[in-house]
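User: Could you go from structure to sequence for me? I need the amino acid at each position, not a summary. Structure tokens:
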């Protein structure tokens, strides 16, 4: 699959400010429903892919995934495995403290040291990839912070 096929802008604006944020359990359930998980890549906001999980800087008891530019294939099955491994796992907060993640834990997309305000609202399965639709009411992702 060519990377260009997966480059779709998915961040949504202010109309999603009041949209329900997905929990870890809801994200897992949505990913489990994807057909052909090993042959579909994950993508959000134009060629970004989720990466390492960590405690969210804004609310330490909540889960965040860092992200990076999609420079290689990252399958739904790989991300699902990471998500499932987070259930019951304890993460250390930015300024200390241990926080155990559950299926009811809200999910964010943010670098370890930042409070992005970006969160998943749904998973959309396309023919060749799976898109994570995110709420980004402040335009955090459009500031190109991911090009550090």
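Assistant: Here is the amino acid at each position, in order:
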């Amino acid at each position: 699959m060519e990377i260009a096929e997966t480059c779709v802008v998915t961040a949504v604006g202010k109309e999603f400010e009041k949209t329900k944020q997905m929990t870890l359990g809801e994200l897992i359930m949505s990913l489990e429903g994807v057909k052909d998980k090993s042959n579909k890549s994950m993508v959000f906001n134009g060629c970004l892919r989720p990466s390492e999980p960590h405690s969210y800087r804004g609310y330490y008891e909540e889960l965040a995934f860092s992200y990076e530019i999609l420079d290689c294939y990252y399958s739904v099955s790989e991300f699902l495995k990471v998500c499932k491994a987070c259930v019951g796992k304890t993460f250390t907060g930015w300024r200390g403290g241990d926080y155990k993640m559950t299926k009811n834990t809200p999910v964010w997309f943010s670098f370890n040291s930042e409070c992005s305000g970006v969160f998943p609202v749904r998973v959309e399965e396309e023919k060749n990839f799976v898109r994570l639709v995110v709420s980004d009411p402040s335009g955090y992702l459009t500031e190109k912070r991911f090009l550090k």
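One structural detail worth keeping in mind: The CA atoms of residues 25 and 103 lie 4 Å apart.
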